[in-house]
Fold this sequence. Notes:
With about 210 residues, this protein is mainly α. Helix content is about 75%, strand content about 0%. The chain is built from nine helices and no strands. The chain has helices spanning about 15-35, 45-50, 50-75, 80-105, 110-130, 140-160, 160-165, 170-200, 200-205. The protein is globular and about 55 Å long. It starts with 12 loop residues before the first helix and ends with a helix. Residues about 1-10 have low confidence and may be disordered.
Amino acid sequence: MSPRDGRSPGLGPANRVTLARIVLIPFFLVALLSAWPSLFARSNLLYVLRPWIATVVFAVLAATDAVDGYLARRRGEVTTFGKFIDPLADKILITAALLGLVEMRVLPSWIALIIIAREFIVSGLRMIASAEGVVIAASWLGKLKTNLQIVSICLFIVKDSRPIRALPAPLPQGINILSWCVMIAAVLFTIISLISYFRHAFETLEGPWS
Length: 210
């Protein structure tokens, strides 16, 4: 209970920002995948900027992760619900973006599978550790892989857009290479961070389990 107003902080500003991130994910998918720009001529500015609109929406949603964390710490509203819903919102956003890129056929499905599988495995490790009273804190490796995933997804959304293709050579090819380099780095750090989680959870996984 909050000492100031006697109300539960479960739905405080931080958690509301997190829930808004989840609610707005379908809008990102609409911008990325839907046929709404086909209502306009293919030369229309809205059609041309469609990937960039989707990228801006994705980037704003990803940035709200820092906002809700800041609000929770500043207001002293770090709740059990917040600890559950915040990482879940991040996973849903990243998963939605990866599946969208696979649907667009610009990203191989095996890359999406590795990243998504890692999130399921880490969630399972944390559940096991929590049941044993052990807290596995987020490491800098996990934060780095998340940032790399966000940057690589943004690059993959726009790398084949008309404004990029209109750039003088060899800039479009260079952006394509950069996109793949960042995505490969994201996959590598996804795997490395998973190994790190296993290392920290080894004693808990080894048992004995109560």
